[in-house]
Amino acid sequence: MTATAVVTALTGCGGGDRVDAAGERATTTARAAEKAAKDELTVAAVRGDVRSAVKAAGIGRLSFPDMSKAGSPCRVLGVLQTEDAPKREVVDSVSAVLKARGWGQMERMSAEDGGQAWHLVKNGWDMFLSAGKVPEGAGIVLDASGKACGVPMPSRPAASETAPPEPPVLS
Length: 171
What we know:
The chain has about 170 residues and is of the alpha+beta class. The chain has helices at about 1-10, 15-40, 45-55, 90-100, 160, and strands spanning about 60-65, 75-80, 105-110, 115-120, 125-135, 135-145. A six-stranded antiparallel beta sheet has the order 1-2-6-5-4-3, with helices on one face. A hairpin with a 5-residue loop joins strand 3 and strand 4. The longest helix has 24 residues, at about 15-40.
């Protein structure tokens, strides 16, 4: 009996499969989390996409208002100011670069001011690309926001901090 137990322990027979399966599940979960983190867009990556797209337009001056101070750490707002409303070819060049950089599901929308607008999606981020008149004049606005961006998000308080204290129990 003792020899059987020793042989079983040394060969990994009898119950070892459960450990291996659990270890394999943990490894698979870790790989999925690693892939999700790798695919996660950062604010810097989104700004890079915007810069590349605007460079293709070859016109105007790009600015990035600081959205983190407005309580939006996962938001990028790029404003390309131009002399006149951008022509369709300019907007097409901007959208072509964004598409080449992985922004897909391009959906055309009607803009309130009669301008051009599109909705794009990439790795959990939404971007609205609009062209026409902007408050500062004319240009292209690229407004992107995501749920995860490599920035720690505010955490919820623990339930013990938000729940009322339990009433005392009388004995």
